[in-house]
Amino acid sequence: MSITDWPADERPREKLVQRGAAALSDAELLAIFLRTGVTGMSAVDLARGLLERFGNLTRMFAAGEKEFCAIHGMGQAKFVQLQAVLEMSRRALQEEMQAGDALNSPRAVRDYLQLLLRSRQQEVFVAIFLDAQHRVVATEELFQGTLTQTSVYPREVVKRALHHNAAALIFAHNHPSGVAEPSDSDRLLTHALKESLQLVDVRVLDHFIVAGAGCLSFAEKGML
Fold it and tell me: Which of 52, 87, 88, 103 has its CA 20 to 30 A from that of 61?
C-alpha cells in the first residue's frame, strides 16, 4: 500500500500540517525528506530501513557519501540534500546563538555545539569567542585528534583570544566513544586553559563535552 492510500491524518505531510513536526516519528520526518520510496517500499518503509541500518538519525547524518549511497534507493543527490539540510540547521543555530548574550541563550549554544560535533569521528576542539557583553565574536575549530594538554596548546588559544579581542570563551569538544564524562586529561586541559587565559584577563565561561545525544557542561557540574 502506498502512502497516498493511507488515511489522510496518518500521512506524514498531512500529519505535520495538522499537528506540527514534533508529532511525527523519526521515520515519518525522514520520509518527508525522502519524498518517494522505491519499488515495493513506501517512503516511510524506506526511512525505517535507513534507521534500522544506521541505528539512529545521528549515525545516519554522520555517514560518508560512499556508505550512504550504497543503500538501495539512495544516491548522491539525496546525500547532497541531506548535507545541505544539516548545514542550514547549523547556520540557523549559529545565527540564533550570535543574536544575543550567549549566557542568556544556553539552549542555542548547546544545540549548536551538539549539531556541530556529535557526528565527528575524531575528537575536535572548538572555541567560541565572546566580547564583554558575551556576544559571539567568532567560532573556531582549533585542534583535532586525541585531545590532551600537549595537543591543545594553551599558548595558541591565548593568541586566538587576543586576535579576536575576546573577553570570554566557551570551549567544547566531542567524545566519539559516546561517553560524555570528562577524563582526567579533560580536567587538566580545562584548568591549564583557564589559568593561561586569566593572565590576559579572559574568562572561561564553560567547557562542553558532546557525546552522541549527551552534552555535559563543566560549569553546570561545578568543575570550573
Answer: 103
Tell me the C-alpha distance between 67 and 175, whole Å.
22
Report the alpha-carbon distance of residue 123 to residue 116 in Å, rounded: 12
Note the pLDDT tens digit of each residue in 125-155. Answer: 999 999 998 888 899 999 887 655 447 889 9
Q: Is the dihedral of CA 107, 113, 114, 115 positive or negative?
A: positive
Percentages of the chain per state (helix, strand, coil), in multiples of 5: 50, 20, 30
- Grid cell for residue 163: 586576535
| φ/ψ bin of 193: left (φ > 0), alpha (ψ from -120 to 50), beta (otherwise) | alpha
All residues at 6 or more sequence positions from 74 whose CB lies less than 8 Å from its CB, including other chains:
50, 68
Nearest to 210 by CA among 85, 116, 94: 116
8 A C-beta contact, residue 52 and residue 44: no
Q: How confident is the model over 89-116, as pLDDT tens digits? A: 878 777 766 666 665 566 778 888 888 8
